[in-house]
UniProtKB/TrEMBL annotation:
Pfam family, one: YdjM
Keyword Transmembrane helix: yes
Protein's UniProt name: Putative membrane-bound metal-dependent hydrolase
Keyword Transmembrane: yes
Membrane-crossing residue ranges in chain numbering: 59-81, 93-118, 130-148, 155-174
Disordered as annotated region, ranges: 334-355
GO MF annotation list: hydrolase activity
Superkingdom as given in the UniProt entry: Bacteria
Length: 355
């Protein structure tokens, strides 16, 4: 998740266990420990644009690395601040350990993918029960850890932990409900997919993006949960087929290997961007949940030499009414059709889904 959420949760756990006089130390060490694993974003290469995708949420997020990462955080805090202030190294380390331990598990609750069991497995865990940024989760937690610090009491931080557990549990229930609606959408089209996945949209647990594959095509829709769930029909795009979509790509080329690296990162959710025939996109993320307009993709070069990497592209393109449309979808309101606002030209009609 975002660094603020990670730091807040990292502070809450050690604060909820610390003695009254150590709530400030627990808060500081927990924030540092909770945020430290994301320092892996500094692992980059100007020659290999996909290197950071391999290392972000990799070894620093592994469960077996927690004691090591926490030791690095705890020793740094103790060496820079602690010796002059007579901090106990043991307590500094334990508080950092508790904060560090929260990070990977919270990240695994998002849809990005986290390598919890590296180096024993390269499986990316994504439980899809909370958005990468969700103020409804984070703001109450921040208030409670601040209260715990200035009241010098453990109970506000403990209450914050309970809030996080309750919110993430609600996300699991909502995810399962959205997947159930997604299966109904598929059946209404005469489809019977093996897997339907639901991923939360930005900053809420009401509006979800559903994705399933039928034959060679991905189907993307948005589901707004409620007493009577509402769907916003979305887009369809063929799953990436290298022979069909990129017949010129040599199997042993560096670009071909980069495509497979990107496939691993995206958990297989790849398609050729309908707007750009040289770009392969990750369809899991989009500004609006019923769209396939990607937030990131890779660009290939037909004329490139065998030793040239692909280019990594990040897109923040959005229309002037994107957030207005998102807000209407969160509220379950109908949308005005705007032809051409997505690759499939679908504006998002509102349809009720009944049992």
């Amino acid at each position: 998740m975002d660094p603020v959420s990670q730091g807040a949760l990292g502070a809450a756990l050690p604060q909820s266990l610390a003695r009254a006089e150590h709530t400030g130390l627990a808060m500081l060490c927990g924030i540092a420990g909770g945020m430290a694993p994301d320092l892996d974003v500094l692992i980059r290469s100007s020659n290999d644009p996909l290197l950071f995708l391999e290392y972000h949420r990799q070894f620093t997020h592994s469960l077996v690395f927690i004691p090591v990462g926490a030791l690095m955080v705890g020793f740094t805090l103790w060496a820079v601040f602690g010796r002059r202030r007579a901090w106990s190294f043991r307590e500094t380390y334990v508080f950092s350990l508790l904060g560090y331990a929260t990070h990977a598990l919270l990240d695994a609750c998002t849809s990005y993918g986290t390598l919890l069991f590296w180096p024993f497995s390269d499986q990316r865990f994504a439980w899809n029960n909370v958005s990468i940024i969700d103020p409804l989760l984070t703001l109450p937690l921040i208030g409670l850890i601040i209260l715990s610090r200035f009241r010098r009491r453990r109970w506000p931080a403990a209450l914050g932990m309970l809030w996080v557990v309750a919110y993430l549990s609600a996300g699991v229930v909502a995810r399962d409900a959205a997947e159930d609606v997604g299966r109904k959408i598929a059946r209404s089209r005469g489809h019977d997919p093996l897997v339907v996945e639901a991923k939360p949209s930005f900053a809420n647990l009401l509006l979800w993006k559903t994705i399933y594959r039928q034959g060679n095509d991905y189907f993307v829709d948005a589901v707004r949960l409620g007493r009577e769930p509402v769907i916003y029909p979305g887009s369809t795009v063929p799953a990436l087929d290298l022979r069909r979509d990129l017949p010129w790509l040599q199997a042993n080329s560096l670009q071909a290997r980069d495509v497979e690296r990107f496939r691993w990162f995206s958990m297989g959710y790849l398609a050729l961007d309908p707007r750009f025939p040289d770009q392969v996109m990750d369809i899991r993320y989009s500004m609006l949940p019923n769209e396939i307009l990607p937030l990131w993709s890779i660009q290939l070069d037909k004329g490139a030499q065998g030793s040239q990497h692909v280019r990594y592209r990040v897109s923040r393109e959005r229309g002037p009414d994107t957030f207005q449309r998102l807000w209407r979808m969160i509220r379950g309101l109908p949308l005005k059709d705007t032809p051409g606002d997505s690759p499939a030209g679908l504006g998002g009609a509102q349809l009720p889904v009944n049992d």
